[in-house]
Design brief:
This protein is an alpha/beta fold. It has 21 helices and 16 strands. The strands form 3 sheets. Strands 5-4-3-6-7-8-9 form a 7-stranded parallel beta sheet, with helices on both faces. A 7-stranded parallel beta sheet has the order 12-13-11-10-14-15-16, with helices on both faces.
Length: 523
């Protein structure tokens, strides 16, 4: 195994010193009028040796020396020599870091104002706010190496849950996230594997530095696309290896990085190890990254679920208010507009059931964001549908619809479904939700033509006749009705998606082995 991570050479440390020293002189020159710096490069000996001396000259001589007519020429000479010393690439890097730090708070303030209503609606963002500023507890060191893992939200935490369980046997895990829902998932399911979990600090150099001094990791693991410049720079400064696992680039991110290739190359080249989640992501990242990349597959296939027995499935259906042996149509992580489409399909099936079938029917709606409950309650009432709410506990009567307005129950609820529609996949929505939830449960799934975040996965499903892709709301309704009528087709889809899912498992074990081998090799 090739060890990509190397400590900087003595020559590299000299270059870093020179760069910082010249940066200091540069800003003295920029902001100091009364105490300018005079300096020159001794080319006859060593072009990288810098000599300087402060000139304590009077104001009269100062104005004579730096007259307005010579000021532009002096600056041009200064900048030219500065670039010679630190190198053009280093200067560009320095400027990018400076711009990022200067623009951080203005951009952060705008994003905060934009997302504040949504954050208030979801709640929980005020808890442990000190973590966002880097105020973590000082964690005592032990004989085990410490890994700092950053996963943004629920999807990423679930994706690496198997990896966390595997790494927790040999290492201390500090797990940070960005959202309150992810923190809740960690507390409920992963707390026994982690030393500490909290919120990721805002990516300003002071906050990041504070967090690093308190956590003191031996390596950091970034999940999927969590590329935070200050966090990466802190790791580089402390010579701590950086792993990007389950790496992916969405269509939007790939387009952005292609527009700024120098920035993309700078970010990716600072990572020591990249483990891509698919062949497409492998090829996209390789276009910016000059080091070795591994493709171990997607760790989302390894998410552990607790399978329900047939008796437990019937009991869960009864708790939701569904009639016994009802056909359950499920909306999986739905977004605005998709619940209305599913209700139309539900109504159409009801009409056909009255004509041809005696079976019972139920609709299970699991919105992507539970805080939309009020909007969905009003809609269901306007449609004159009987419904229960999962957040209110066990239903005492039979209903047509259950609104699952809770968090973290999707993998359990989907096991009672007979057919599922995957949300955020039809216009005007874009990106798609994870189709693996249905694959884990082995049930047939339908999704729209906007599953751009899961394009590789969906292409495989369609080739293997393991899912149905639709182009419009009308096609979605027709496909749902057709599958309701055709039990044999549902069985074929369910069998194919189950086989496909099992063939793609094992990425978590491969990732754990790779991380372990590299950390052992670098000792």
């Amino acid at each position: 195994m090739i060890n990509i991570y190397k400590k900087p050479s003595p020559e590299g440390r000299v270059d870093n010193f020179l760069f910082l020293f010249c940066s200091y002189l540069y800003f003295i020159k920029l902001f100091s009028w009364r105490r300018p710096i005079a300096w020159k490069i001794h080319r006859e000996n060593d072009p990288r040796i810098l000599s300087w001396h402060p000139q304590a000259i009077g104001r009269k001589n100062l104005h004579e020396k730096y007259a307005k007519k010579d000021f532009g020429k002096t600056w041009c000479s200064f900048l030219k020599n500065f670039i010679v010393i630190v190198g053009f690439d280093s200067l560009i890097l320095f400027e990018m870091i400076l711009i990022y730090r200067l623009l951080f708070f203005p951009i952060f303030a705008l994003l905060l104002l934009k997302n504040l209503p949504k954050m208030r609606k979801r709640g929980g963002y005020g808890k442990n706010l000190k973590h966002r500023f880097g105020f973590f507890p000082f964690l005592p060191k032990s004989e085990k190496k410490r890994l700092w893992i950053q996963a943004v939200s629920v999807g990423e935490v679930n994706a690496i849950s198997r990896l966390i369980a595997l790494l927790g046997e040999e290492y201390e895990i500090v797990l940070t996230t960005t959202t309150p829902t992810a923190q809740k998932i960690i507390g409920d399911k992963l707390s026994q594997y982690v030393l500490f979990h909290g919120y990721f600090p805002w990516d300003f150099w002071l906050f990041s530095r504070m967090a690093w001094r308190r956590i003191e990791p031996d390596a950091i693991i970034l999940v999927e696309s969590e590329l935070w410049p200050e966090h990466i720079l802190q790791a580089e400064k402390r010579q701590v290896p950086i792993f990007l696992v389950n790496a992916r680039l969405s269509d939007y991110s790939f387009k952005y990085y292609r527009a700024f290739p120098r920035l993309a190359r700078w970010i990716f080249e600072k990572l020591n190890f990249i483990l891509a989640s698919s062949e497409q992501n492998y090829e996209r990242i390789a276009s910016f990254y000059g080091k070795t990349i591994e493709n171990f597959g997607n760790m989302k296939f390894d998410v552990p679920i607790a399978p329900l027995s047939e008796g437990e499935q019937k009991l869960l259906g009864k708790e939701l208010g569904f009639p016994e042996d009802a056909f359950v149509l499920m909306g999986c992580s739905t977004w605005p507009g998709e619940e209305a489409m599913l209700v139309k399909a539900f109504r159409k099936i009801q009409e056909k059931r009255n004509e041809q079938f005696e079976g019972k029917l139920a609709l299970l709606l699991v919105p992507r964001h539970a805080e939309r409950r009020r909007e969905l309650i009003q809609y269901l009432e306007s449609e004159h549908l009987t419904f229960s709410r999962r957040s209110q506990g066990i239903s005492t009567q039979n209903v047509e619809v259950c609104l699952a307005d809770t968090t973290g129950e999707l993998s359990r609820l989907i096991q009672i479904a007979d057919l599922a529609y995957v949300g955020k996949s039809l216009a005007p929505n874009e990106g798609g939700q994870n189709p693996l939830d249905g694959a884990m449960a082995g049930i047939p799934i339908i999704y729209g033509n906007r599953m751009t975040n899961f394009r590789d996965m969906c292409e495989q499903l369609e080739v293997e006749n393991a899912a149905i892709k639709v182009e419009s709301e009308k096609e979605a309704i027709d496909a749902i009705v057709e599958l309701f009528e055709n039990a044999q087709k549902r069985q074929v889809l369910a069998k194919n998606i189950g086989n496909w899912f099992r063939r793609n498992q094992g990425a978590s074990e491969k990732t754990r082995d790779f991380i372990h081998s590299q950390l052992q090799y670098s000792e």
